[in-house]
Amino acid sequence: MSSAQIEIQLIASLVAIACAIPGTFLVLRKMALITDAISHSILPGIVIGFFITHDLSSPLLIIMAAASGVLTVVLVEFIQKTGLVKEDTAIGLVFPALFSIGIILIAQNANDIHLDIDAVLLGELAFAPFDRLILGRTDVGPKSLWIIGTILLITLGLLFTFFKELKVSTFDAGLASALGLSPVVMHYGLMTVSSITTVGAFDAVGAILVIALMIAPAATAYLLTNDLKKMLVLAVLFGVGSAISGYWFAHALDTSISGSMTTVLGLVFLLVYLFAPNKGLFSVLYRQKQQRIEVSLLTFLLHLGNHQEEKERHVKHLNEHINWQKVRSKSVLDLALKNNMITIDHNIVSLTKKGKNFTTEAIDYIVTNKNSEIEHMKDRFFLFRG
Amino acid sequence: MKDKIAVQIDDLTVAYNYKPVLWDIDLAIPEGVLMAIVGPNGAGKSTLIKSILDIIKPIAGSIQIYGKPYKKQRSLVAYVPQKGSVDWDFPTTALDVVMMGTYGSLGWIKRPGQKEKKAALEALEKVGMLAFKNRQISQLSGGQQQRIFLARALVQNAAIYFMDEPFQGVDATTEKAIINILKELRKSGKTVIVVHHDLQTVPEYFDWVTFLNVKKIATGPVKDIFNDDNLTKTYGINYKVSVQQ
What we know:
The complex is a heterodimer.
Chain A: H1 3-28, H2 32-41, H3 43-53, H4 59-81, H5 87-108, H6 117-122, E1 132-135, E2 138-142, H7 143-171, H8 173-178, H9 183-222, H10 228-253, H11 257-275, H12 281-306, H13 315-323, H14 326-338, E3 342-345, E4 348-351, H15 353-368, H16 375-378
Antiparallel strand pairs in A: 1-2, 3-4
Chain B: E1 5-16, E2 19-30, E3 34-38, H1 45-52, E4 60-65, E5 77-80, H2 94-99, H3 103-106, H4 114-126, H5 142-154, E6 160-164, H6 172-187, E7 191-195, H7 202-205, E8 208-213, E9 215-221, H8 222-225, H9 228-235
């Protein structure tokens, strides 16, 4: 690996971490769409900042961009508060307006700036190592590495300082407000950090793909854990992992780095969406199937409990009486046998003591809805979970 | 005789987009009562609580908690919002939600430690939810979620408790458990204010009641003012309750 390659991966990783942290809270606040808006509407801020400083890496650009990001949020909320349109419509009204102002400003002054719309939208990570930060006469590394590094440090500092406040205002803004932990400050703080991060990630991945880095890792992590801290850690890991493997993917195919990174993010999400242990699609389908069988099992046991006469308890009669197909009858019988709830003697099915107890308990639960009584059954049967 | 006033509200008007939802409310809630706020949908019951807690800014009027504005008395007040106001799929556990009740006394930045955890576990025990402390909150039933919210308020160890429809969507067992805890709170001298929907249970559960429908209709002891006259004034229709007093 050349030093440029290492630098590119380092920048990509820092961008991924810096995006995953605010992204996690945005996903939990159901505000994913606002990142889309911010990522576009920071453009006029950047352009105006550039007019003033004529330097693409000036801190003023970041400040102006963050300001126009926050302005987006303020405008969206203002339009929404009129009660005339819903939030998604308000977002759809605000960001194209701001974005187009940015485009017009660029187009009008295209002669004397090298702010290229493609680079704004897609970024060009491969060029990042060429723009060096020179202190005195020493080359201390790529400028974008320093920019995103600084942003990441600030983000981490804020996260550790205000973790508790962020958590409570995200979960229950009413309580946070009553406790005096101003959810409004947290809201705008998060919006400011998101805007600043978007600008910082801008060089690396561009305005559009930064959305993927904010939302996809958090959405993936959300499917895998029930703990906010773990969700943050997982989001960071997914972000960095996708960034680095995306880079090598692009290297192998000789294609766009940001495009590959985003593709990897999408693929990772798809895999987790399908195979996640609890919330994944297959796991949900399996659970539903299992639940269906267990409901059948209970129906069957109840039937046995209610009928002493042998003809009602004959294996063959199951199909006719409970009106089940062969496969279902067999899987229900197997499950009951495996759990020692029935015995089969000359094709006549009888309830065991365990089967009797189980049926009474289960029916009791279903009728009275008393949770504590079936806590011990939950581990064995899906029927009683969630 | 109940002399001390826990919550004093004068000339309170609250509006959304300049449409008043609460109109010139005067209300004095004495210390140590278990009070129901009743009224039809859209009467401003939740808004009244949110205004007292400074979550919604009124356009006129003043609210005092033991003679001082809410901002100076936060530590005296605990709040149970409507269960539906939060996202129960949030990645956190029952214990963690209860711990959030301690965030107010901790103030900004400081993290909860062993002391807060102990208080949260005690509160969970009081509401009979200790066994569920590590359960993800979406895995709890509606009644259990309501108990968690109650535990979160208990952990605040306040003087005044505000609860927004704590009996909504809970089973009879949980309702009994909750009302017993509320009665215990009153017994220990706390003031408990509950937005309530089920008029039948008002005389059994509460000793004080406020009728609200944008304007205040009446407030006072249940035995004196919980009658057809006030119910009719509040609900608009000719109300006849078959409530045994």
